[in-house]
Amino acid sequence: MIGSQKSIANNPGKLAAILGEASANFIKQGKLIKVGKGVYRYDPEVIADVELFDFSSATKEQIFARDGYRCVVCGRGRTDRVEICADHKVPKDKGGTNEAENGQNAMH
Question: What are the backbone angles phi and psi of residue 20, rounded to the nearest 5°?
Fold first, then answer.
């Protein structure tokens, strides 16, 4: 972090007021780099290290069957000719797992 970025990062209240809570957290975690006054970008090295993951085929099928092959939000499903997908209830970056208990049907 550069000097002005450090002074703002050390003052969470000011940082959150300026950028919003989510952006403030990204800066504190080193995910955003300041490139100008009020202008930030993602650090490409951090983004490259993000590991994306998906449910296994067996886990997806378990989630689909448990939720009746229907979207848990709107209730539409295969019989309505809409595509459903297995979605994480709690994302990995928020501590979620790839277990069926953390999955739900959603429209694609």
Answer: 95, 155
